[in-house]
């Protein structure tokens, strides 16, 4: 609990002086005024986050949190829960989508078991920080206790701190957990008041009957638990997930340490939504990677206040959209250091 409290105390506004210096540089570049659009915005944001008008990215990583969900008992997923533990193994062997794309962009992958139902200790490379083996079925009661939710957030904070201390200056969020679009949708409904039908998507590809079960499960979870939208940790503990809580901690930890964090898809955005409710200033440290094919993801991003960089109709999760966004974030730093200004060219403007 102390780590959670001290982390929140360290989250401050961006450095306005270095942001202004970055904008001054951008406005002097040998281009039409702010012609690089959102790339300019990211560059100035990075300058404000990292406290320098010339931010640089040296090392980057995707932190994947793995956790299972009791709500799968309601028939909300097209895949069995055993897939979660199997994919944790695949991550360590380097054969998953996130491994492929991370290798492509030069990012490392950090894999954490924060709540997988099966045993992942037999897979070298999986960091063992299990709070409990999966959440309870939130359709019949709270997914976890408040204490477990805060403990999971603190695991995420610790993971962010460790990677930043090891020299990673660009973090990204990734997830693994069969059934996790259901708690993510429920979190969105709890915070916004939207109906279960408005927030529920097909996730891993459930059919019409599966979608009905999902909508019903969300409705049950909200009715049974009555999460308080004015208490983000209450909402998270009652209708969230352990990996969502862990990713919430990663985001808060990055903000406290003044490092940018790229938010992946629907699950990561659910964590970002919780982080935003806990600490509104943390949004300033987030970069939205992509808008996924999940029905309500655009609503989630708008609620947080994030503009996605990409729209590729992806719905894999794992941090894949965030990994693809990394080169664009790096490119934003280069326009502050590598481009000529009109003054460099001796041209009056």
Provide a descriptive summary of the structure in words.
With 349 residues, the protein is α/β, with parallel strands linked by helices. The chain has two domains: 2-55 and 334-345, Nicotinate-nucleotide-dimethylbenzimidazole phosphoribosyltransferase (CobT), small domain (5,6-Dimethylbenzimidazole Phosphoribosyltransferase, Chain: A, domain 1, Orthogonal Bundle), CATH 1.10.1610; 60-328, Rossmann fold, CATH 3.40.50. Helices cover 50% and strands 9% of the residues. The protein has 15 helices and six strands. The protein has helices at residues 2-10, 16-28, 38-50, 82-93, 97-105, 146-165, 181-192, 196-199, 208-225, 232-239, 242-256, 266-278, 297-304, 320-337, 342-345; strands at 60-67, 108-115, 126-128, 170-176, 261-263, 286-288. It has a six-stranded parallel β-sheet with strand order 3-2-1-4-5-6, with helices on both faces. Helix 12 links the parallel strand 5 (261-263) and strand 6 (286-288). Helix 6 packs across helix 10 and helix 7 packs antiparallel against helix 10. The longest helix is centred in the middle third of the chain and has 20 residues, at 146-165. The termini are far apart. 56% of the residues are buried. The model has no long low-confidence stretch (mean pLDDT 97). Catalyzes the synthesis of alpha-ribazole-5'-phosphate from nicotinate mononucleotide (NAMN) and 5,6-dimethylbenzimidazole (DMB). Pathway: Nucleoside biosynthesis; alpha-ribazole biosynthesis; alpha-ribazole from 5,6-dimethylbenzimidazole: step 1/2. It catalyses: 5,6-dimethylbenzimidazole + nicotinate beta-D-ribonucleotide = alpha-ribazole 5'-phosphate + nicotinate + H(+). Its EC number is 2.4.2.21. It holds the Pfam family DBI_PRT.
